[in-house]
Protein backbone atom coordinates (compact mmCIF):
# COMPACT_ATOMS: atom_id res chain seq x y z
CA UNK A 1 0.00 0.00 0.00
CA UNK A 2 2.87 2.29 0.92
CA UNK A 3 4.54 1.57 -2.43
CA UNK A 4 1.35 2.21 -4.34
CA UNK A 5 0.84 5.66 -2.85
CA UNK A 6 4.47 6.60 -3.56
CA UNK A 7 4.07 5.58 -7.19
CA UNK A 8 0.86 7.51 -7.49
CA UNK A 9 2.53 10.63 -6.13
CA UNK A 10 5.37 10.25 -8.64
CA UNK A 11 2.89 9.91 -11.50
CA UNK A 12 1.03 13.03 -10.34
CA UNK A 13 4.28 15.02 -10.17
CA UNK A 14 5.36 13.92 -13.65
CA UNK A 15 1.94 14.64 -15.15
CA UNK A 16 1.95 18.10 -13.53
CA UNK A 17 5.42 18.82 -14.94
CA UNK A 18 4.42 17.77 -18.45
CA UNK A 19 1.20 19.79 -18.33
CA UNK A 20 3.15 22.79 -17.02
CA UNK A 21 5.68 22.58 -19.87
CA UNK A 22 2.92 22.20 -22.42
CA UNK A 23 0.95 25.18 -21.08
CA UNK A 24 4.04 27.41 -20.92
CA UNK A 25 5.12 26.55 -24.46
CA UNK A 26 1.61 27.03 -25.75
CA UNK A 27 1.14 30.41 -24.12
CA UNK A 28 4.53 31.65 -25.33
CA UNK A 29 3.64 30.50 -28.85
CA UNK A 30 0.27 32.26 -28.69
CA UNK A 31 1.91 35.40 -27.33
CA UNK A 32 4.43 35.46 -30.18
CA UNK A 33 2.07 34.65 -33.03
CA UNK A 34 -1.35 36.08 -32.35
CA UNK A 35 -2.27 39.71 -32.01
CA UNK A 36 -4.70 39.08 -29.14
CA UNK A 37 -4.91 36.31 -26.54
CA UNK A 38 -7.78 33.75 -26.74
CA UNK A 39 -11.22 35.17 -25.99
CA UNK A 40 -11.56 33.39 -22.64
CA UNK A 41 -8.24 34.77 -21.44
CA UNK A 42 -9.23 38.27 -22.60
CA UNK A 43 -12.55 38.02 -20.80
CA UNK A 44 -10.91 36.77 -17.61
CA UNK A 45 -8.27 39.47 -17.73
CA UNK A 46 -10.92 42.16 -18.21
CA UNK A 47 -12.84 41.00 -15.15
CA UNK A 48 -9.71 40.69 -13.00
CA UNK A 49 -8.61 44.11 -14.28
CA UNK A 50 -11.88 45.66 -13.12
CA UNK A 51 -11.57 44.02 -9.69
CA UNK A 52 -7.95 45.13 -9.43
CA UNK A 53 -8.97 48.77 -9.84
CA UNK A 54 -10.74 48.57 -6.47
CA UNK A 55 -7.32 47.99 -4.85
CA UNK A 56 -5.11 49.85 -7.31
CA UNK A 57 -6.97 53.19 -7.39
CA UNK A 58 -6.69 53.90 -3.63
CA UNK A 59 -3.06 52.73 -3.62
CA UNK A 60 -2.09 54.93 -6.56
CA UNK A 61 -4.05 57.82 -5.07
CA UNK A 62 -2.20 57.44 -1.78
CA UNK A 63 1.10 57.45 -3.63
CA UNK A 64 0.09 60.64 -5.44
CA UNK A 65 -0.70 62.48 -2.23
CA UNK A 66 2.46 61.32 -0.44
CA UNK A 67 4.73 62.24 -3.32
CA UNK A 68 3.06 65.64 -3.71
CA UNK A 69 3.99 66.44 -0.10
CA UNK A 70 7.61 65.43 -0.65
CA UNK A 71 7.72 67.33 -3.91
CA UNK A 72 6.52 70.45 -2.12
CA UNK A 73 9.83 70.58 -0.26
CA UNK A 74 12.00 71.22 -3.27
CA UNK A 75 9.46 73.19 -5.25
CA UNK A 76 11.23 76.53 -4.85
CA UNK A 77 14.51 75.40 -6.36
CA UNK A 78 12.77 73.58 -9.15
CA UNK A 79 10.67 76.61 -9.91
CA UNK A 80 13.79 78.75 -10.40
CA UNK A 81 15.27 76.27 -12.83
CA UNK A 82 12.03 75.67 -14.70
CA UNK A 83 11.39 79.39 -15.23
CA UNK A 84 14.55 79.61 -17.23
CA UNK A 85 13.62 76.59 -19.32
CA UNK A 86 10.09 77.84 -19.97
CA UNK A 87 11.27 81.02 -21.65
CA UNK A 88 13.46 78.96 -23.96
CA UNK A 89 10.66 76.50 -24.60
CA UNK A 90 8.20 79.19 -25.67
CA UNK A 91 10.55 80.16 -28.46
CA UNK A 92 10.95 76.52 -29.57
CA UNK A 93 7.23 75.90 -29.41
CA UNK A 94 6.35 78.84 -31.64
CA UNK A 95 8.92 77.72 -34.14
CA UNK A 96 7.62 74.16 -33.92
CA UNK A 97 4.08 75.33 -34.62
CA UNK A 98 5.20 77.32 -37.64
CA UNK A 99 7.17 74.39 -39.00
CA UNK A 100 4.29 71.96 -38.41
CA UNK A 101 1.97 74.30 -40.28
CA UNK A 102 4.43 74.69 -43.13
CA UNK A 103 4.95 70.93 -43.20
CA UNK A 104 1.21 70.38 -43.50
CA UNK A 105 0.90 72.82 -46.38
CA UNK A 106 3.85 71.30 -48.20
CA UNK A 107 2.44 67.78 -47.75
CA UNK A 108 -0.85 68.98 -49.18
CA UNK A 109 0.93 70.41 -52.20
CA UNK A 110 2.83 67.19 -52.84
CA UNK A 111 -0.33 65.15 -52.26
CA UNK A 112 1.04 63.23 -49.32
CA UNK A 113 -1.63 62.22 -46.81
CA UNK A 114 0.45 60.82 -44.02
CA UNK A 115 4.11 60.09 -43.54
CA UNK A 116 6.11 58.07 -41.04
CA UNK A 117 6.12 60.87 -38.48
CA UNK A 118 2.33 61.08 -38.17
CA UNK A 119 0.72 59.46 -35.17
CA UNK A 120 -2.11 60.06 -32.76
CA UNK A 121 -1.84 59.43 -29.06
CA UNK A 122 -3.93 57.47 -26.58
CA UNK A 123 -3.13 58.37 -23.01
CA UNK A 124 -3.58 55.71 -20.35
CA UNK A 125 -2.99 55.30 -16.63
CA UNK A 126 -0.86 52.54 -15.19
CA UNK A 127 -3.02 50.27 -13.01
CA UNK A 128 -0.45 47.90 -11.65
CA UNK A 129 2.91 46.29 -12.23
CA UNK A 130 3.80 42.62 -12.60
CA UNK A 131 5.19 41.46 -9.25
CA UNK A 132 7.97 39.41 -10.80
CA UNK A 133 11.66 39.92 -11.33
CA UNK A 134 11.61 38.33 -14.77
CA UNK A 135 9.18 40.60 -16.50
CA UNK A 136 9.34 44.35 -16.35
CA UNK A 137 5.76 44.80 -17.33
CA UNK A 138 3.03 47.24 -16.38
CA UNK A 139 -0.70 46.97 -16.97
CA UNK A 140 -2.48 50.03 -18.37
CA UNK A 141 -6.18 50.84 -18.37
CA UNK A 142 -6.79 51.09 -22.11
CA UNK A 143 -7.35 48.11 -24.37
CA UNK A 144 -8.59 47.15 -27.80
CA UNK A 145 -11.84 49.07 -27.29
CA UNK A 146 -9.78 52.29 -27.12
CA UNK A 147 -7.86 51.35 -30.28
CA UNK A 148 -4.73 49.82 -28.77
CA UNK A 149 -3.07 47.20 -30.97
CA UNK A 150 -0.26 44.81 -30.08
CA UNK A 151 3.32 46.03 -30.68
CA UNK A 152 2.43 49.74 -30.56
CA UNK A 153 5.15 51.83 -28.93
CA UNK A 154 4.45 53.38 -25.53
CA UNK A 155 5.90 56.65 -24.23
CA UNK A 156 6.03 58.39 -20.90
CA UNK A 157 7.28 61.88 -20.15
CA UNK A 158 9.72 62.68 -22.90
CA UNK A 159 10.66 59.31 -24.26
CA UNK A 160 9.96 55.79 -25.34
CA UNK A 161 9.40 53.26 -22.55
CA UNK A 162 8.26 50.05 -24.22
CA UNK A 163 5.74 48.31 -26.38
CA UNK A 164 2.31 46.73 -26.00
CA UNK A 165 2.71 43.00 -25.48
CA UNK A 166 -0.85 41.85 -24.87
CA UNK A 167 -4.19 43.51 -25.58
CA UNK A 168 -7.47 42.78 -23.81
CA UNK A 169 -10.71 44.69 -24.20
CA UNK A 170 -10.22 47.14 -21.35
CA UNK A 171 -6.60 46.74 -20.30
CA UNK A 172 -3.30 45.82 -21.89
CA UNK A 173 0.21 44.88 -20.87
CA UNK A 174 3.26 46.98 -21.67
CA UNK A 175 6.69 45.38 -21.85
CA UNK A 176 9.26 47.96 -20.78
CA UNK A 177 12.55 48.35 -22.65
CA UNK A 178 14.34 47.39 -19.43
CA UNK A 179 12.96 43.89 -19.94
CA UNK A 180 15.66 41.65 -21.34
CA UNK A 181 13.67 38.94 -23.06
CA UNK A 182 14.05 38.07 -26.72
CA UNK A 183 11.54 40.52 -28.13
CA UNK A 184 11.03 43.37 -25.67
CA UNK A 185 13.39 46.06 -26.86
CA UNK A 186 14.02 45.57 -30.54
CA UNK A 187 13.21 49.04 -31.82
CA UNK A 188 14.49 50.37 -35.14
CA UNK A 189 16.27 53.64 -34.32
CA UNK A 190 18.35 56.24 -36.08
CA UNK A 191 21.02 58.61 -34.81
CA UNK A 192 21.88 61.89 -36.42
CA UNK A 193 25.54 62.64 -35.78
CA UNK A 194 27.08 66.06 -35.28
CA UNK A 195 28.32 66.03 -38.87
CA UNK A 196 24.79 65.49 -40.11
CA UNK A 197 25.06 61.84 -41.11
CA UNK A 198 22.25 59.41 -40.20
CA UNK A 199 23.06 56.05 -38.69
CA UNK A 200 20.35 53.38 -38.62
CA UNK A 201 20.23 50.39 -36.33
CA UNK A 202 18.23 48.26 -33.94
CA UNK A 203 18.29 48.41 -30.14
CA UNK A 204 19.65 45.14 -28.86
CA UNK A 205 19.28 44.95 -25.11
CA UNK A 206 19.37 46.57 -21.72
CA UNK A 207 22.37 46.64 -19.45
CA UNK A 208 20.95 46.22 -15.96
CA UNK A 209 24.16 47.21 -14.15
CA UNK A 210 24.48 50.65 -15.69
CA UNK A 211 20.79 51.18 -16.52
CA UNK A 212 21.57 51.86 -20.15
CA UNK A 213 20.12 50.59 -23.42
CA UNK A 214 22.68 48.88 -25.66
CA UNK A 215 22.87 48.87 -29.43
CA UNK A 216 25.14 46.41 -31.22
CA UNK A 217 26.54 45.79 -34.68
CA UNK A 218 26.95 49.29 -36.03
CA UNK A 219 29.39 49.19 -38.93
CA UNK A 220 29.19 52.80 -40.07
CA UNK A 221 32.26 54.99 -40.45
CA UNK A 222 30.40 58.06 -39.20
CA UNK A 223 31.66 59.30 -35.88
CA UNK A 224 29.04 58.91 -33.18
CA UNK A 225 29.81 61.03 -30.15
CA UNK A 226 28.48 61.31 -26.63
CA UNK A 227 25.23 63.27 -26.42
CA UNK A 228 23.93 62.43 -29.89
CA UNK A 229 20.16 61.96 -29.77
CA UNK A 230 18.63 58.59 -30.58
CA UNK A 231 15.12 58.53 -32.09
CA UNK A 232 12.98 55.79 -33.63
CA UNK A 233 13.45 55.53 -37.37
CA UNK A 234 9.92 54.40 -38.25
CA UNK A 235 11.25 51.57 -40.39
CA UNK A 236 9.51 48.22 -40.33
CA UNK A 237 6.31 47.94 -38.34
CA UNK A 238 3.98 50.09 -36.34
CA UNK A 239 6.47 52.45 -34.67
CA UNK A 240 6.22 56.02 -35.97
CA UNK A 241 9.34 58.02 -36.82
CA UNK A 242 10.84 60.48 -34.41
CA UNK A 243 10.00 59.14 -30.95
CA UNK A 244 12.78 60.14 -28.58
CA UNK A 245 14.64 57.17 -27.08
CA UNK A 246 17.61 58.73 -25.32
CA UNK A 247 21.10 60.12 -25.64
CA UNK A 248 24.30 58.29 -26.51
CA UNK A 249 26.32 57.83 -23.32
CA UNK A 250 29.28 55.91 -24.67
CA UNK A 251 30.44 54.49 -27.99
CA UNK A 252 32.94 51.68 -27.87
CA UNK A 253 34.17 48.76 -29.95
CA UNK A 254 32.28 45.53 -29.42
CA UNK A 255 33.81 42.33 -28.02
CA UNK A 256 35.50 41.38 -31.29
CA UNK A 257 36.55 44.86 -32.39
CA UNK A 258 34.70 44.67 -35.69
CA UNK A 259 31.74 46.94 -35.08
CA UNK A 260 30.69 49.70 -32.73
CA UNK A 261 28.60 49.17 -29.62
CA UNK A 262 26.57 52.06 -28.21
CA UNK A 263 25.30 52.69 -24.71
CA UNK A 264 22.22 54.88 -24.60
CA UNK A 265 20.85 56.65 -21.52
CA UNK A 266 17.03 56.37 -21.60
CA UNK A 267 15.13 59.65 -21.80
CA UNK A 268 12.69 58.89 -18.99
CA UNK A 269 12.95 57.34 -15.56
CA UNK A 270 11.64 53.86 -16.34
CA UNK A 271 11.00 52.82 -12.77
CA UNK A 272 8.43 55.47 -11.96
CA UNK A 273 5.52 55.38 -14.39
CA UNK A 274 2.03 56.73 -13.77
CA UNK A 275 0.61 58.06 -17.00
CA UNK A 276 1.74 56.70 -20.34
CA UNK A 277 0.97 57.50 -23.97
CA UNK A 278 0.38 54.88 -26.64
CA UNK A 279 1.43 56.08 -30.10
CA UNK A 280 -1.00 55.03 -32.83
CA UNK A 281 0.27 55.21 -36.39
CA UNK A 282 -2.18 56.05 -39.15
CA UNK A 283 -2.08 53.18 -41.57
CA UNK B 1 -16.60 23.65 10.37
CA UNK B 2 -15.26 25.55 7.34
CA UNK B 3 -18.65 25.76 5.66
CA UNK B 4 -20.22 27.34 8.72
CA UNK B 5 -17.53 29.92 9.45
CA UNK B 6 -16.86 33.35 8.02
CA UNK B 7 -13.70 31.85 6.49
CA UNK B 8 -15.75 30.57 3.60
CA UNK B 9 -16.00 34.09 2.19
CA UNK B 10 -13.23 35.78 4.12
CA UNK B 11 -10.44 33.53 2.90
CA UNK B 12 -10.98 34.04 -0.87
CA UNK B 13 -11.56 37.78 -0.42
CA UNK B 14 -8.31 38.09 1.55
CA UNK B 15 -6.53 36.00 -1.08
CA UNK B 16 -7.52 38.27 -3.95
CA UNK B 17 -6.86 41.39 -1.87
CA UNK B 18 -3.31 40.15 -1.27
CA UNK B 19 -2.91 39.25 -4.94
CA UNK B 20 -3.84 42.76 -6.05
CA UNK B 21 -1.82 44.35 -3.24
CA UNK B 22 1.29 42.59 -4.61
CA UNK B 23 0.83 44.38 -7.91
CA UNK B 24 0.01 47.73 -6.29
CA UNK B 25 3.03 47.54 -3.98
CA UNK B 26 5.23 46.75 -6.97
CA UNK B 27 3.79 49.74 -8.82
CA UNK B 28 3.81 52.26 -5.96
CA UNK B 29 7.29 51.40 -4.65
CA UNK B 30 8.76 50.45 -8.04
CA UNK B 31 11.66 52.92 -7.69
CA UNK B 32 12.79 51.20 -4.51
CA UNK B 33 11.86 47.59 -5.23
CA UNK B 34 13.01 47.15 -8.81
CA UNK B 35 16.53 48.50 -8.74
CA UNK B 36 18.90 47.04 -11.25
CA UNK B 37 21.31 45.90 -8.54
CA UNK B 38 18.69 44.35 -6.27
CA UNK B 39 15.17 43.27 -7.18
CA UNK B 40 12.67 42.74 -4.40
CA UNK B 41 9.38 41.05 -5.25
CA UNK B 42 6.59 41.05 -2.69
CA UNK B 43 4.79 37.72 -2.28
CA UNK B 44 1.83 38.64 -0.05
CA UNK B 45 -0.30 35.94 -1.70
CA UNK B 46 2.16 33.29 -0.56
CA UNK B 47 2.12 34.84 2.92
CA UNK B 48 -1.70 34.60 3.02
CA UNK B 49 -1.66 30.97 1.83
CA UNK B 50 1.09 29.89 4.26
CA UNK B 51 -0.68 31.64 7.15
CA UNK B 52 -3.90 29.80 6.22
CA UNK B 53 -2.08 26.50 6.71
CA UNK B 54 -0.42 27.69 9.92
CA UNK B 55 -3.61 28.97 11.56
CA UNK B 56 -6.26 26.60 10.24
CA UNK B 57 -6.37 24.09 13.24
CA UNK B 58 -9.55 22.06 12.78
CA UNK B 59 -10.98 24.22 10.00
CA UNK B 60 -10.16 22.36 6.81
CA UNK B 61 -9.73 25.26 4.43
CA UNK B 62 -9.33 24.06 0.80
CA UNK B 63 -6.11 26.07 0.56
CA UNK B 64 -4.51 24.13 -2.30
CA UNK B 65 -7.53 24.60 -4.56
CA UNK B 66 -7.65 28.34 -3.90
CA UNK B 67 -3.87 28.47 -4.39
CA UNK B 68 -4.33 27.06 -7.89
CA UNK B 69 -7.01 29.68 -8.59
CA UNK B 70 -4.74 32.49 -7.37
CA UNK B 71 -1.90 31.03 -9.45
CA UNK B 72 -4.07 30.96 -12.56
CA UNK B 73 -5.11 34.61 -12.07
CA UNK B 74 -1.48 35.57 -11.42
CA UNK B 75 -0.35 33.85 -14.63
CA UNK B 76 -3.06 35.25 -16.85
CA UNK B 77 -3.36 38.76 -15.46
CA UNK B 78 0.16 39.63 -14.35
CA UNK B 79 2.61 37.66 -16.50
CA UNK B 80 0.61 36.42 -19.49
CA UNK B 81 2.56 33.15 -19.45
CA UNK B 82 0.14 30.46 -18.30
CA UNK B 83 1.33 27.38 -16.41
CA UNK B 84 3.94 28.65 -13.93
CA UNK B 85 2.41 29.94 -10.69
CA UNK B 86 -0.70 27.79 -11.13
CA UNK B 87 1.52 24.82 -10.18
CA UNK B 88 3.95 26.59 -7.84
CA UNK B 89 1.34 28.00 -5.41
CA UNK B 90 -0.35 24.62 -4.66
CA UNK B 91 3.10 23.03 -4.36
CA UNK B 92 4.02 25.63 -1.73
CA UNK B 93 0.81 24.85 0.18
CA UNK B 94 1.60 21.11 0.01
CA UNK B 95 5.17 21.70 1.21
CA UNK B 96 3.92 23.83 4.10
CA UNK B 97 1.42 21.11 5.10
CA UNK B 98 4.26 18.54 5.12
CA UNK B 99 6.53 20.80 7.17
CA UNK B 100 3.79 21.66 9.68
CA UNK B 101 3.48 17.91 10.42
CA UNK B 102 7.09 17.88 11.59
CA UNK B 103 7.37 21.27 13.31
CA UNK B 104 4.57 22.66 15.42
CA UNK B 105 3.71 26.05 13.97
CA UNK B 106 4.61 29.13 15.99
CA UNK B 107 6.14 32.51 15.08
CA UNK B 108 9.76 31.33 14.72
CA UNK B 109 9.09 28.01 13.01
CA UNK B 110 6.63 29.85 10.76
CA UNK B 111 9.44 32.19 9.78
CA UNK B 112 11.60 29.18 8.92
CA UNK B 113 8.85 27.54 6.88
CA UNK B 114 8.16 30.82 5.05
CA UNK B 115 11.89 31.12 4.26
CA UNK B 116 11.82 27.71 2.56
CA UNK B 117 8.57 28.54 0.74
CA UNK B 118 9.82 31.82 -0.71
CA UNK B 119 13.06 30.17 -1.81
CA UNK B 120 11.01 27.51 -3.58
CA UNK B 121 8.72 30.05 -5.28
CA UNK B 122 11.60 32.18 -6.53
CA UNK B 123 13.80 29.26 -7.61
CA UNK B 124 11.05 27.47 -9.53
CA UNK B 125 9.82 30.63 -11.23
CA UNK B 126 13.43 31.42 -12.17
CA UNK B 127 13.88 27.96 -13.72
CA UNK B 128 10.59 28.27 -15.61
CA UNK B 129 11.50 31.75 -16.90
CA UNK B 130 14.90 30.53 -18.02
CA UNK B 131 13.22 27.75 -19.92
CA UNK B 132 10.82 29.96 -21.88
CA UNK B 133 13.52 32.61 -22.48
CA UNK B 134 11.95 35.34 -20.40
CA UNK B 135 15.31 35.94 -18.76
CA UNK B 136 18.91 35.08 -19.46
CA UNK B 137 20.21 35.84 -15.98
CA UNK B 138 22.96 33.54 -14.67
CA UNK B 139 22.24 31.40 -11.64
CA UNK B 140 24.78 33.18 -9.45
CA UNK B 141 23.35 36.58 -10.41
CA UNK B 142 19.88 35.27 -9.54
CA UNK B 143 21.03 34.35 -6.03
CA UNK B 144 22.58 37.75 -5.37
CA UNK B 145 20.30 40.22 -7.16
CA UNK B 146 16.90 38.56 -6.76
CA UNK B 147 16.68 35.73 -4.24
CA UNK B 148 18.57 37.48 -1.44
CA UNK B 149 16.71 40.82 -1.53
CA UNK B 150 13.35 39.10 -2.10
CA UNK B 151 13.89 36.88 0.94
CA UNK B 152 14.85 39.91 3.02
CA UNK B 153 11.72 41.85 2.02
CA UNK B 154 9.33 38.93 2.47
CA UNK B 155 10.72 37.83 5.82
CA UNK B 156 10.39 41.42 7.01
CA UNK B 157 6.78 41.46 5.79
CA UNK B 158 6.20 38.14 7.59
CA UNK B 159 7.50 39.58 10.86
CA UNK B 160 5.33 42.69 10.49
CA UNK B 161 2.16 40.96 9.28
CA UNK B 162 2.23 37.66 11.24
CA UNK B 163 0.22 38.88 14.22
CA UNK B 164 -2.26 41.04 12.23
CA UNK B 165 -2.98 38.13 9.87
CA UNK B 166 -3.41 35.77 12.84
CA UNK B 167 -5.89 38.28 14.25
CA UNK B 168 -7.79 38.30 10.96
CA UNK B 169 -7.94 34.49 10.83
CA UNK B 170 -9.09 34.28 14.45
CA UNK B 171 -11.81 36.81 13.71
CA UNK B 172 -12.90 34.88 10.60
CA UNK B 173 -13.16 31.61 12.52
TrEMBL record, chain A:
One of its GO terms (cellular component) is plasma membrane. The gene is mreC. Residues 72-109 form a coiled coil. Residues 126-279 form the Rod shape-determining protein MreC beta-barrel core domain. This is Cell shape-determining protein MreC. GO terms for biological process: regulation of cell shape. Involved in formation and maintenance of cell shape. It comes from the Bacteria. Belongs to the MreC family. It holds the Pfam family MreC.
TrEMBL record, chain B:
GO terms for biological process: regulation of cell shape. Its main location: membrane. The chain crosses the membrane at residues 36-55, 76-95, 107-129, 141-165. It is a multi-pass membrane protein. It comes from the Bacteria. GO terms for cellular component: plasma membrane. Keywords: Cell membrane, Cell shape, Membrane, Transmembrane, Transmembrane helix. It is found in: Cell membrane. NCBIfam families: shape_MreD. Belongs to the MreD family. This is Cell shape-determining protein. It comes from Levilactobacillus spicheri DSM 15429.
